[in-house]
């Protein structure tokens, strides 16, 4: 998901930095990708600073771990004051809590379940 | 003493010894632990006080009766899990006091800014002891106010210090910082006026914040 999204923003002419613990995930970036790919922990304040978060206009937390995303997104929003922060939270209950706390969140579980339900219900 | 209901997330070494101590003090304790084998071991040792589950999940915390808990202490080795346990406890279940263990010392300040009542960093605790044991260190942390960003620090003015010969009013101290006391050999500690002048070997007690500590150190020491 991160690789795909990064490629889309890059193709649209934006400046993109991808941060991942594992270089293996960078294989999905297209050869044309002109942004930066960095190995590092996205919940680490110093690493985020190195990745240039202080100049970012948007931050998206997309790891497989809900809690890691929640933590990284809150650091981006409350510590670095990134203007737009979006967080992926699989667990719908957890997503509701953080939405109430003002963190813009998307639950893929909810979105995908809705999508399937709507498709099948129309049959 | 009032008996409290305390929920501990994480049944590792810290969770175990903490539960043991709290149970001995007469408190009601529940440990939430993901690993079934750790759970069994804890129950063998401490009696029925362990629940198997993910301490970040609303359903699990609800089952643990978190709404009546006096405190939640998150002690896992993952900082992000400790953060989420505490935040869910605080915002969903209105637990009055949440305490998180932080493994990365940088998260100490971050977690407090994100609303956790108290954070404990093993690394920082050891560092504070090192500072106090080695008097050469120019800035010593004396006290951190729980639940706030304020702290009390002690600084030693050395010969090289840019503050020597200057008054408090002349220095560009951070706004949220107060010089509370100047201690000078052979004199009684005094609460300084804005025109009090710093001398070599003065020991300064200041009230400051985590954010301003670095600036204070720069202005007074180098």
Features:
heterodimer; A: 123 residues; 5 strands; 43% helix; 15% strand; B: 222 residues; alpha/beta; Rossmann fold; Alpha-Beta Plaits; four-stranded antiparallel sheet; 7 helices; 24% strand
At a glance:
By secondary structure, chain A is an alpha/beta fold. Chain A has helices spanning 2-11, 45-50, 66-79, 92-100, 108-121, and strands at residues 17-20, 36-39, 58-61, 84-88, 105-106. Chain B is built from 7 helices and 10 strands.
Question: Can you characterise this structure?
Answer:
The complex is a heterodimer of chains A (123) and B (222). With 123 residues, chain A is α/β, with parallel strands linked by helices. Chain A has a single domain (2-121), classed as NAD(P)-binding Rossmann-like Domain (Rossmann fold, 3-Layer(aba) Sandwich), CATH 3.40.50.720. Helix content of chain A is 43%, strand content 15%. Chain A contains five helices and five strands. Chain A has helices at residues 2-11, 45-50, 66-79, 92-100, 108-121; strands at 17-20, 36-39, 58-61, 84-88, 105-106. In chain A, the strands form two sheets. In chain A, strands 3-4-5 form a three-stranded parallel sheet. A two-stranded parallel sheet of chain A has the order 1-2. The two termini of chain A are 29 Å apart. Chain B is an alpha/beta fold and 222 residues long. Chain B has two domains: 5-121, Rossmann fold, CATH 3.40.50; 135-220, Regulator of K+ conductance, C-terminal domain (Alpha-Beta Plaits, 2-Layer Sandwich), CATH 3.30.70. Chain B has a six-stranded parallel sheet with strand order 3-2-1-4-5-6, sandwiched between helices. Chain B has a four-stranded antiparallel sheet with strand order 7-8-10-9. In chain B, β5, α5 (107-113) and β6 (118-121) form a beta-alpha-beta unit. Chain B is elongated. Chain B starts with a strand and ends with a helix. The A-B interface holds A 43-46, 65-68, 70-71, 74-75, 78-79, 91, 93-94, 97, 100-101 and B 56-59, 78-81, 83-84, 87-88, 91-92, 104, 106-107, 110, 113-114.
């Amino acid at each position: 998901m991160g690789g795909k999204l990064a490629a889309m923003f890059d193709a649209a002419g934006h400046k993109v930095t991808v941060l991942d613990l594992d270089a293996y995930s960078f294989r999905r970036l297209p050869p044309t990708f002109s942004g930066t790919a960095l190995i590092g922990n996205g919940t680490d304040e110093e690493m985020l600073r190195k990745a240039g978060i202080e100049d970012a206009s948007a931050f998206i937390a997309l790891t497989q771990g809900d809690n890691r995303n929640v933590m990284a997104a809150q650091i981006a929003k409350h510590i670095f004051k990134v203007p737009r922060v979006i967080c992926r939270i699989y667990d719908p209950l957890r997503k509701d809590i953080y939405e109430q706390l003002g963190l813009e969140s998307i639950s893929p579980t909810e979105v995908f379940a809705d999508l399937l339900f709507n498709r099948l219900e129309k049959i | 003493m009032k008996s409290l209901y305390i929920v501990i997330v994480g049944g590792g070494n810290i969770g175990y010894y903490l539960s043991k101590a709290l149970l001995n003090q007469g408190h009601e304790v529940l440990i939430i632990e993901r690993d079934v084998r750790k759970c069994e071991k804890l129950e063998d040792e401490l009696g029925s006080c362990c629940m198997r589950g993910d301490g970040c999940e609303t359903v699990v915390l609800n089952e643990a009766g978190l709404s009546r808990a006096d405190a939640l202490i998150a002690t896992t080795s993952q900082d992000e899990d400790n953060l989420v346990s505490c935040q869910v406890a605080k915002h969903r279940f209105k637990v009055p006091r949440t305490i998180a263990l932080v493994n990365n010392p940088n998260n100490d300040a971050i977690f407090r800014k994100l609303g956790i009542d108290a954070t404990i960093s093993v690394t920082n605790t050891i560092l504070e002891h090192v500072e106090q044991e080695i008097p050469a260190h120019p800035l010593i942390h004396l006290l951190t106010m729980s639940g706030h960003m304020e702290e009390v620090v002690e600084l030693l003015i050395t010969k090289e210090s840019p503050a020597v010969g200057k008054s408090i009013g002349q220095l560009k101290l951070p706004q949220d910082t107060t010089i509370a006391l100047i201690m000078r050999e052979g004199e009684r500690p005094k609460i300084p006026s804005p025109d009090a002048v710093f001398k070599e070997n003065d020991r300064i007690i200041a009230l400051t914040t985590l954010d301003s500590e670095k600036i204070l150190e720069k202005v007074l020491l180098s």
